[in-house]
Amino acid sequence: MNLKQIRYALAVAEEQSFTRAAQRCHTVQSALSHQIAKLEEELGCALFERTSRRVSLTSAGRAFILPAQRLLSARQTLVDEVVSASGTLSGTLTIGTISTLNAIDLTEKAAAFHRHHPAVNIRLYVGISELLLENIRQQQTDVAFVGLWPGDKDMLPVSHRLLSDEPLVALVSPRHALAGSRQVTLQALAEVPLVDFYSGTGARRQTDRAFQAAGVRRHVSFEIDHIEWLENLVRSGLATGIVPVSTALRLSGLVAVPIKDGPRRQVYCAWQQPLSRAAERFLQFSGLGPAEA
Residue 282: which H helix or E strand, with range? Predict the structure, then answer.
């Protein structure tokens, strides 16, 4: 068994295709298939079920994934630590963030860090808070910026820092009937078409619980997974959004209306110990400080 075989197997699992996995790994399909066959022979079991239409993991394949990911991560950590000990900070820093992060300028911080440590490769991606926290736990992400309902703090890993705590507001187009209101109630919002994040996400729980606590039933007409969809639907006048006040202030041309007894959103920086050298240095460089107890 070697690292190349493990990388190939993980690529097939993620792509669900030998052809796409070979393209991703910059090799020919026959070579990739041969290496995976050798890996399966050594393990004594098949990792994949192959049909003419699809490739799926066997039960053994599903058991293989997480330890394989950890092995590759440990190998990279080993390389990073040795190189860093020589005086040059290197490696890969993976940072995940929600799409409505306003508490810090992540782009500016990442750019400034890279100017000081050009040998560090930085990977940035956007996701919902639940995915980001799971990737932290699985050690697939070094640092994550997540937004949570105040009651969901137990979802956080041990190491985290509160960055902001702010109210959510109703976001409407200037032509909307609520645009001239000084304040709006949850009951009034329940009577207009709403756009919100998918059910089950942290952002959605924030608003669901607020309506439930007020004893108000509502109907979400549009479900989205990114703030840009919400912005476009609000601008078109098709729906009213409920967003953090800092997000509303960034969206020019739209109107933010305070919500009476409305929900709040807390934003955290979270990470899992042990940190890589690059992640540790990034947190120090960015002034994100120690964990909050």
Answer: helix 277-285
- pTM value is 0.69
User: Cα separation of 126 and 124, whole Å?
Assistant: 7
Residue type present at position 152: D
Give me the count of residues in the chain. Answer: 293
Q: Where in the chain is the domain with CATH 1.10.10.10?
A: 3-70
Q: How far is CA 95 from the centre of its chain?
A: 9
Domain 164-266: give its CATH architecture: 3-Layer(aba) Sandwich (3.40)
Give the tokens for residue 64. 């293989």
Q: Is the pLDDT of residue 268 over 60?
A: yes
Amino acid at 257: V
pLDDT value at residue 77: 76
| Measured distance CA(45)–CA(58) in Å, rounded | 9
Query: Which pair of structure tokens corresponds to residue 104?
Result: 């810090």
